[in-house]
Design a protein that fits this description.
The chain is mainly α. Helices cover 75% and strands 0% of the residues. It contains five helices and no strands. InterPro entries: ELL/occludin, Occludin_ELL.
Amino acid sequence: EESRQSQCSQCSQYDTEPTTAPESGDERDGDSQQWHRLYPPLSSPSARRRYKEDFGAGLRRYKELCAQLDALGQRLAQLEQQLEQLPEDSTQYQALAEEYNHLKDLKRSPEYQDKKRESQTLRNKLFHIKRMVSDYDKL
């Protein structure tokens, strides 16, 4: 839960003008090498434009994934709070508990895990592109 929170709350640090380096670059070595191959240091204004376009497209997808992951987490937290305030033998409790258990199962699903992995991969890609643009702009 907490790692999902820290990962997805990063959405707000991105903007459509990737001109500053990210504060954190916690890329894995394999990811880092992959991004260096796909996005080597910039050498021209046209390459910079392409990187910015890729950044924009990646950012849109990343924010979409974060919204989906966050919505599920927020609903679970809301249900948990409501369940704590109800008697366990009430019909309302039973209905909320059913929804809560269903959402917990969704969080363990391969689809959810794939979205989580995709968001992390995109986050690393965005950090890398932002760093390459920033390095180019310093020259």
